[in-house]
Amino acid sequence: MAGKIFLNGEFVSRDKAVVSVFDHGLLYGDGVFEGIRAYGGKIFRLADHIDRLYDSAKAIRLAIPYDRPTLTAHVKSSVRENGLRDAYIRLVVTRGVGDLGLDPDKCPKPTVFIIADSITLYPKEYYDNGLAIVTVPTRRNVPEALNPRIKSLNYLNNILAKIEGKLAGCVEALMLTDSGYVCECTGDNIFCLRDNVLMTPPVYLGALKGITRGVVMDLARSRGLTVLESPFTRHELFTAEEVFLTGTAAEIVPVTNIDGRFIGDGKPGRTTRALIEDFRRSRQEGDDAYAV
Ligand code: PMP
To answer: Which atom of ligand 1 is nearest to the CA of 249?
Structure first.
């Protein structure tokens, strides 16, 4: 369990790791975050996560009060301080304390905290048997209103979809765009494979540009697959040979049933299983700069 939490420049114990009720991160979901993993003492794709955090912050005009090398060092020390080798890291920057109005200019000091915790792995059966997912009525936010490329603290869109998925007995749920194209799941990107072509929705449709998504696209190209970022509908999913989800927590998880249709033969596909193996190998590698 995370014992020492980085909060605004210092490490504090878990019970001292508290933020104000006037913090706009809490009052309005005004802030940005990253979920990151460390494997065997190395932080996976840390530079990519740091870049995405700064991009999210830029998009909401939030000035992160550290430069990249300093914030990177704080993430590394959070893992080290907690004596972890394998970890799930939550890096959060909120607008900070303000008054009860919306105005971000009345929040002079962003709140920064980093939680490095032990990782709760998904049940093995998800990987052995694949997930059954459903399409939920809640559509993904339209990019013109709140761009899902901003990894903001405002996750209510995803939470509503998650509730609907759970009510249907599923741990993950498929969200469509406003126009009915496949977008992403509540906390994972989605891929489908047919005839050696791997497709995932383009981020301009309103999906998060997942770090795992990027890694998997590279691994798939190395396997000789054609990788396309292209809009598609549920029909392409129903008729795919294989479907899988990607995310920092899930890594790569096969999907074997969507809205009551079996995908392929209803078992995790050969390419998905190969990519899972490739991914497990690739996460051991990585830049020594991110050793904790
Ligand atoms: N989509 C959403 C909505 C997410 O919250 C996440 C997890 N952060 C992902 C996709 C997967 O992104 P990543 O691979 O960077 O974890």
So the answer is: 16
Q: Are residues 101 and 150 in the same domain?
A: no
Catalytic residue among 4, 42, 76, 151: 151
* Distance in Å, CA 100 to ligand 1 centroid: 30
Signed CA dihedral, 77, 78, 80, 85: sign only = negative
Q: Strand 251-258 and strand 242-247: pairing?
A: antiparallel
**Last residue in a domain, options 96, 117, 138:** 117
> What whole-number distance in Å separates Cα of residue 53 and Cα of residue 273?
30
- Kindly give the residue spans of alpha helices, DSSP state H, lying in the chain: 24-28, 46-59, 68-81, 124-129, 156-167, 211-222, 234-238, 270-282
Domain assignment of residue 79, given as a range: 4-117
pLDDT, tens digit (0-9, with 9 covering 90-100), for 128-165:
999 999 999 999 999 999 999 999 999 999 999 999 99
Are 46 and 186 contained in the same domain? no
pTM of the model: 0.97
